[in-house]
Amino acid sequence: MSYCEKSYPTEPTAPTVTTTQIPGPASTKAIENLGKVFDARPCYFVADYEKSIGNYIVDLDGNTFLDLYAQIASIALGYNNPDLIKAAKSPEMIRALVERPAIGNFPGKDLEGILKQLLKFAPKGQDHIWSGLSGADANELAFKAAFMYYRSKQRGYNTEFSTQENESVMDNVSPGSPSLAVLSFKKAFHGRLFASGSVTCSKPIHKLDFPSFHWPHAEYPYYQYPLDKHTAENKKEDDRCLQIVEKLITSWEVPVAALIIEPVQSEGGDNHASAYFLQKLREITLKHNVVYIIDEVQTGVGATGKFWCHEYANITPPPDLVTFSKKFQSAGYWFHDPQFIPNKAYRQFNTWCGDPARMIIAGAIGQEIVDNKLVDQVQRVGKYLIDELAKVSEKYPQYLQRLRGKGTFIAWDLPTGEQRDLFLKKLKLNGCNVGGCSDKSVRLRPTLTFEEKHVDIFIAAVNKTLKDF
């Protein structure tokens, strides 16, 4: 019995769309009403989550879509998962929701167990965790940890702060407030807050009108596909980008304390970094005493066919910090060097220090993935999916360009952004909810419970859409 048969016995056998446009009339009216109290302009449609099940999302008009977007890549197991509902009804969850403890000061007696459950799923080489509230928050917290670690290495971990440091930081000047930088990559997306906005470089709309740090952006490799036919060219591209990274580190106007990279630039167009590139970055960061941060907010928790995407690269020694969120329904960063714990209390701190309710769900998600070997399923289904898409690309090469992916974390390009947007609109009318990224890319982000039967439905919808395109 498959996971879906076991967990979602009432999951639909096919999508159904009864309206002639999306959003339909009921969703349109609901969006209009919502817009009176909330910015509803980005809404695709209004969902009925009580009726959504497994890999299908239902809207207010009764349209039932096969969902390959999964709440912007943040649903791991599908809608109304019975094991997550069970976790949500547990006594630990009731305490976490009702009391919402300030766990930095008043941790509950069950917090240690909650964290140990999460650490079972940590990336290879990582054995500590710090929790946050969102992907952007996780990255901002990681930057704080990196800066404090970097300065403690210069000062000495147990060295007291000088009078000058304590006084100058109150005026936001050096030495208490040092000039340091985080290096990121063009087309990167790491969040929409202030420090995370400064390392985000995907679309102007993400960061217009708010102040940013003057931090460097290196070039991320842009590969030719299929990879096995362009080995030499892609190796040359890796080396070109690595030279840029090292030059920026050694020549930037202020010291580069940290480097952050996505193993796959998700919002930026599903640009993949090779194992060679990620390992060479580790060597460069070690050489120049730069903290190495891997952003696994969108790529983590199984969708690429590894629990953590950067594990494909077997980075040695392990990255310093690995941030997570989305499919874990929680957020934070993993680390292994105890000196990333600041030398004094209250330096990495806020009222809640994360959310134990979300941690409980994350632990349940991880256990479901491991117990049901869903990462193995992603590898199997992902191969089937990309092979079927390759067949479609032979029929419609102009509309499936640069097909790429790991697991079910798959993307391709259309010739223009206008064609991409039209394709997604028509695909939705054919029953599949799919998202885009960058200027002209289509990205697939199904749940880990996506099966071959779902692939067949999706491929039929793609063929129907392109036939009438």
Automatic annotation (TrEMBL):
Residues making up the signal peptide according to the UniProt record: none
InterPro entries per UniProt: 4NH2But_aminotransferase_euk, Aminotrans_3, Aminotrans_3_PPA_site, PyrdxlP-dep_Trfase, PyrdxlP-dep_Trfase_major, PyrdxlP-dep_Trfase_small
Keyword Nucleotidyltransferase: no
EC category: transferase
Swiss-Prot/TrEMBL cofactor(s): pyridoxal 5'-phosphate
Cellular component, GO, one term: mitochondrion
Family: Belongs to the class-III pyridoxal-phosphate-dependent aminotransferase family.
EC identifiers of the protein: 2.6.1.19
GO biological process: gamma-aminobutyric acid catabolic process
Taxonomy of the source species: Eukaryota, Fungi, Dikarya, Ascomycota, Saccharomycotina
Protein's name according to its UniProt entry: 4-aminobutyrate aminotransferase
Lineage: superkingdom: Eukaryota
